Amino acid sequence: MPDSWQLTNRDHKAAHHELLTLTASSDCSLRTVWLNPSDNQLSVAEMKIAEESFPSLAVHLPETAWDEREIHDMFGWIPTGHPDLRPLIRTPRWPETYLPLRKNQQTPRWLEVEPDLPALKVEGDGVTIMKVGPTHAGIIESGHFIFSLIGENILHLDAHLFQNHRGVEALLEDKTIDKVAPIVTRICAADTVSNQTNWASAVERLVGFTPAPGTVLQRIILLEAERILSHLNDLAQIPAGVGFQVAHQRALAMKESWQRSLELLYGHRFLFDTVHPGWTRSAPADLLLDSLANLHRQWVPWRQLVVGHHGFADRMSGVGRTTLAQIDRFGAQGVAARAAGKTFDARQSTAYYEGFFNGSVTRSAGDVQARFDVRLDEVEASLQIIESAAGQLEIESPTELEFLVPKDLSGRIVTFTESPHGLNSHDVTLVNGIVFRYHIRSATFRNWPLLAQAVADNAVADFPLINKSFELCYSCTDR
Predict the structure, then answer these.
(1) Max CA-CA distance within the chain?
(2) How far is 155 from 148, CA to CA, in rounded Å?
(3) Angle, vertex CA 353, rays to CA 350 and CA 359, nearest 5
(4) What is the spatial distance between Cα 244 and Cα 261, in angstroms, rounded to a whole number?
(5) CB 441 within 8 A of CB 20
(6) Which string of DSSP letters, residue by residue, matches 311-344?
(7) What element of type H or E holds 392?
(8) Do residues 13 and 25 lie in contact, with contact meaning Cβ atoms separated by under 8 Å?
(9) Going by DSSP bridges, is the β-strand pair 422-431/411-419 parallel, antiparallel, or unpaired?
(10) Residue-by-residue pLDDT tens, the chain, 479 positions
(11) 386-397 burial by CB neighbour count: b if 16+ within 10 A, else e?
(12) What angle separates helix 463-470 from helix 213-240, to the nearest 10 degrees?
């Protein structure tokens, strides 16, 4: 059985399938779900935990390393053969017996010790250790970064996330279906529509319900509106990393304008509570098109400003480079992956987008410039998708179909979307209308290890620029 577990998952990776989830459950089971992008079929591999351990996949599939460390922290099961089984989430303040995702766990009395986790550092003559965080200037969330430097050159970065771990997955357990949406909506403000859509789709598919065409159009519009909002923020932060303040401030003004449009259209600047099982908040087509036109008037001169600035381009070019081999090794997703030549975009495998998605935007250089350029083109592609969907709204009725959820709804399902950060997957198990297990594997969870690789061999001064070009989310990683 252990050999079969490892071999099956390695075969999926060798076939260029995408890992949606690696999920552990309190019934002592492990399950992986893989997507074959060529035919959009899902494949499942399962095994039972025996004697509190299981064979690690991370030796051959490094993209599972964080998943297995998380399983070890939250359930206590040992992935035998794991190359780096340091704590990922738990800190020295957690009692050894506290395993949050085991059933019937009580919040413990925290130990009065220093909270820092052991760090991997480079040792040798001339090596300096520099620590950044966990508290940062501004309003960003907490992250602790330990740099090993020689002079100004970064030898190694050890990133310690989960500084504000909220225990969302444990919180969702034992919730009735009607209590889930407010929590899922607030996992992460940047990917909220993606998370909401995953949850709504999970319930609808378990019920056997097909949303009305008008509802599908509104979900497409909301997903793309969220992508534009996130990309505008990221496009503003990259020039900020090199002191290009005119571009930075004008992009922030565009973002603010777009958020005000979203509040007018949907009642919330971050699009919270807009997608529920069987229901989606609607916006009038004419107001949508007016908002697109307003954004387009600001977008065109701003893009001309940044694309035509040679000094800005020179500063981004060649910095924070990643290779397609690294992307594959770490299972990276989203903009970071497509900027290095990966063609996968989950929208190509999502039925919602049939007839709307015209192919992924890619570059090959894998540097800051490439990640910036991919976002530029993805914003314009999203504007076109919204315009097309809004045009069809005038034809399709927005009337919601009757949606009834059986009180004893049971089943297990994996849903996924292409969030602004990349492939976002939810593994949901319901038993008699109650959440038994809810696992979230966000795109940023997959991409943080790649960021640590991307900064090696760059200067310390390059880190803010590289970090902003990835612009990974703390919240949906910490969850």
Answers:
(1) 70
(2) 5
(3) 90
(4) 26
(5) yes
(6) HHHHHHTTTT---HHHHHHHT--HHHHHTTT---
(7) helix 368-393
(8) no
(9) antiparallel
(10) 567 999 999 999 999 999 999 999 999 999 999 999 999 999 999 999 988 999 999 999 999 999 999 999 999 999 999 999 999 999 889 998 899 998 887 888 888 888 788 888 888 888 999 988 787 766 677 888 898 999 999 999 998 888 888 889 999 999 999 999 999 999 999 999 999 999 999 999 999 999 999 999 999 999 999 999 999 999 999 999 888 999 999 999 999 999 999 999 999 999 999 999 999 999 999 999 999 999 999 999 999 999 989 999 999 999 999 999 999 999 999 999 999 999 999 999 998 899 999 999 999 999 999 999 999 999 999 999 999 999 998 766 556 678 889 999 999 999 999 999 999 999 999 999 999 999 999 999 999 999 989 999 999 999 989 999 998 888 888 88
(11) bbbbbebbeebe
(12) 170
Cα–Cα nearest to 105, from 114, 93, 113, 94: 94
DSSP state of 352: G
Superfamily of chain region 168-478 = Cytochrome-c3 Hydrogenase, chain B (1.10.645.10)
Query: Are 147 and 129 spatial neighbours (Cβ–Cβ below 8 Å)?
Result: yes
For every residue of 40-90, DSSP letters joined together read TEEEEEEEE-BTTEEE-STTT-GGGHHHHHHHHHHH--EEET-S----SS-
Provide CB contacts within 8 A for 352, sequence distance 6+. Answer: 216, 219, 220, 223
Identify the helix (H) or strand (E) that includes residue 107: none
Cβ contact 434:101 at 8 Å: no
Please, are residues 280 and 222 in contact by the beta-carbon 8 Å criterion? Answer: yes
198 exposure class (CB count in 10 Å sphere: 0-12, 13-18, 19+):
buried
Class of domain 2-113: alpha beta
The secondary structure of residue 397, as a DSSP letter, is: -
Helix (H) and strand (E) counts for the chain? 15, 13
Residue with tokens 């760090």: 119
**Pair of tokens at residue 375:** 């976002």
Domains of the chain, by residue range, sit at 2-113, 120-164, 168-478
Distance in angstroms (rounded) separating the CA atoms of residues 61 and 22: 12
Nearest to 339 by CA among 357, 358, 324: 324
And the tokens for 190? 């940047």
From the list 452, 454, 442, the residue with the least C-alpha distance to 479 is 442
Closest-CA residue to 371 (of 224, 236, 230, 238)? 238
Whole-Å CA distances, 127 to 145, 155, 156, 217, 454: 16, 9, 11, 55, 19
